[in-house]
Automatic annotation (TrEMBL):
Protein name: NADP-dependent oxidoreductase domain-containing protein
Keywords assigned: NADP, Oxidoreductase
Residue ranges constituting the NADP-dependent oxidoreductase domain according to the UniProt record: 31-319
A single GO cellular-component term on record: cytoplasm
Source organism: Vanilla planifolia (Vanilla)
PANTHER family: AFLATOXIN B1 ALDEHYDE REDUCTASE (PTHR43625), ALDO-KETO REDUCTASE YAKC [NADP(+)] (PTHR43625:SF40)
A molecular function (GO) term: oxidoreductase activity
SUPFAM superfamilies reported for this sequence: NAD(P)-linked oxidoreductase (SSF51430)
Gene3D superfamilies xref list: NADP-dependent oxidoreductase domain
Cited Pfam families: Aldo_ket_red
InterPro entries noted in UniProt: Aldo-Keto_reductase, NAD(P)_OxRdtase_dom_sf, NADP_OxRdtase_dom
Domain of life: Eukaryota
Length: 348
């Protein structure tokens, strides 16, 4: 595990994300687990200290969403951005998933898009969002309608760049025709590779950056099956198919092989898994999340792990996961399409 002094010696380079001018650190920090989904919210002072530590180390690209909490994670990040800290970092947040009567709802209608943006700006305490994603795709609203409102928000100076998350190839193309998409966020790791056939080639054809969330397989590629024993009842990973009995035993062999290769390479399994994502290309920015400074230090150690084509092939040969990425019944969390623009009867 990388110590604080070793982490401080690692240079975190900058990269162009997409082709519209956004520059970010080559690795970001996902903030979800600080407030939601992975058990109880963590102590606010500790998380602010982690965010400041990350920025001091050169990781200056922070990812949140209005759905994390909901709202709590944006408020946390907003507190961390005070006292001149805002100018040192790039902030990405998302809209599109709401809760109504305890049920998730996906929205992309113009009035909601604008209200969501205003709410995020207020909670973050900033005047402009660097990268604003549609978190999930509304299957009732044509993407052109949603993009039309986002384009207005760019023109008004409330957001700088537009992104999509878990969008299909055709939706990305349609959105990009309305206004350039800077980045597409998708789950990409050794055991989540379904985007490689269609979505990633589309992004590269259009000059769109790729932001890889859950690059450590939600912690499985760091700790293996023993991770499940440490999860609280509030941790949503307990319900994910890949963490269920049967699938878990089969997926344990993936971790065992990754761990063997990591030992041979002189790094940790998480560093190896992250390095694999980094080696996918200079247009890919992984955003591993953590709530611990020691884990953050370890994660940036992935930036100095070198993998040969043979190493890459060996890793890919052993990493075919059992089980879906999400539980059944949450189809809206997966890649979705929108209806044609001609079907829209509302106001654009």
């Amino acid at each position: 595990m990388a110590t604080a002094s070793e982490a401080a010696a690692i240079h975190v380079s900058r990269m162009k994300l997409g082709s519209q001018g956004l520059e970010v650190s080559a690795q970001g920090l996902g903030c979800l687990g600080m407030s939601d989904f992975y058990g109880q919210p963590k102590p606010e002072p500790d998380m602010i200290a982690l965010i400041h530590h990350a920025a001091a180390a050169g990781v200056t690209f922070f990812d949140t969403s209005d759905f994390y909490g909901p709202h709590v994670n944006e408020i946390l990040l907003g507190k961390a951005l005070r006292d001149g800290f805002r100018e040192k970092v790039k902030v990405a947040t998302k809209f599109g998933i709401t809760l109504r009567d305890g049920k998730r709802e996906i929205r992309g209608d113009p009035a909601y898009v604008r209200a969501a943006c205003e709410g995020s700006l207020q909670r973050l305490g900033i005047e402009c969002i660097d990268l604003y994603y549609q978190h999930r795709i509304d299957t009732l609203v044509p993407i052109e309608v949603t993009m039309g409102e986002l384009k207005k928000l760019v023109e008004e100076g409330k957001i700088k760049y537009i992104g999509l998350s878990e969008a299909s190839s055709s939706t990305i193309r349609r959105a990009h025709a309305v206004h350039p998409i800077t980045a597409v966020q998708l789950e990409w790791s050794l055991w989540a590779r379904d985007a490689e056939d269609d979505i990633i080639p589309t992004c590269r054809e259009l000059g769109i950056g790729i932001v890889a969330y859950s690059p450590l397989g939600r912690g499985f590629l760091s700790s293996g099956p023993k991770l499940v024993d440490s999860l609280s009842d509030q941790d949503f990973r307990k319900a994910l198919p890949r963490f269920q009995a049967g699938n878990l035993e089969k997926n344990a062999s993936i971790f065992e092989r990754v761990n063997e290769i990591a030992t041979r390479k002189g790094c940790t399994p998480s560093q190896l898994a992250l390095a694999w994502v980094h080696h996918q290309g200079g247009d890919v920015c992984p955003i591993p999340g953590t709530t611990k400074i020691e884990n953050f230090n370890q994660n940036i150690g992935a930036l100095v792990v070198k993998l040969s084509p043979e190493d890459m092939a060996e890793l890919e040969a052993c990493a075919s996961a059992e089980g879906d990425r999400y539980m059944s019944g949450i189809s809206t969390w997966r890649v979705s399409e929108t209806p044609p623009l001609s079907s829209w009867k509302g106001e654009a």
